[in-house]
User: Fold this.
Amino acid sequence: MSINIQQVQSFRARTGLPMMACKKALEETDGDEEKALEILRKRGETKAADRAERSVKNGVIACYIHSNKKVAAVVKLLCETDFVARNAEFQALAYEIAMHVTATNPQFIKPEEAPADFVAKEKEIALAQIKTEGKSADLADKIVIGKLKKIVEERALLTQPFIKDPTKTIGQLIQDLIAKIGENIQVGEIKRMEV
Assistant:
């Protein structure tokens, strides 16, 4: 059975795991999400997702100022313990995320945090574009949903491709470090300033 991208994205949203891990697990189980989740648990790949439930009370604030001194970003990266907050890899990740925020100017951290007025405005724009293209009404809804999803993912920090390695998203970088150090890590706040 061939697995389509919508199945993989749905399963990824549910598990928080990388796309390829989700795709492989779904292919092995012919699209059965419950069996795929069981396979991933046996492999230990859900550890990072399980850690997401733990509270984060420690962390660091990282700042990046561009060489032109006209744009900067501050990122609050949270973790469970002060031991991890002092870890060089954790601090480097916070700095890399601050540099990424400076370059890409994300509007919010997670796609689900997109403000309702932002989504409504983008939906209105997408509908206007579809009308000018002369698409049928039944296709319009599907096109609008696709366009909205793409726009929200482009503006959300965790779903943006990392500027230094576009094969990974910021969310995947965080998941990789969670898997490595064994603690929950979350982006608490981001702030970008420009002159």
The domain at 58-110+156-194 is CATH 3.30.479.20 (Tetrahydropterin Synthase; Chain A). The mean pLDDT is 87. The first helix runs from residue 5 to 15. The chain has three domains: 5-45, 58-110+156-194, 115-154.
